[in-house]
Design a protein that fits this description.
The protein is mostly helical and about 100 residues long. The protein has 3 helices and no strands. Helices cover about 25% and strands about 0% of the residues.
Length: about 100
Amino acid sequence: MYGIPPFHAETPEKVFENILSGHIDWHVEYIDFSPEALDFMKRLLVVDTTKRLGANGAEEVKAHPWFAGVEWDKVTTSEAAFIPQVNDPRSTAYH
């Protein structure tokens, strides 16, 4: 959804510092998020696990506004909107 690891930095030391401090540079000036998407990502990355989205179970995550319109009881039986076509099942590239 974001395209960049949340705690990215120039050095491994800075990455670890960002993780421990919870610092995330969201680059909102370059990446266009819906308010729901940004809230969803931020709430999944709350440092205090008791306050993190999902701390009270999967239903809490599924009820987030970012998933509005998802029919959870049909997720496994509905046809996917996008099915990647791969040339090699061992490849991680998709062009």
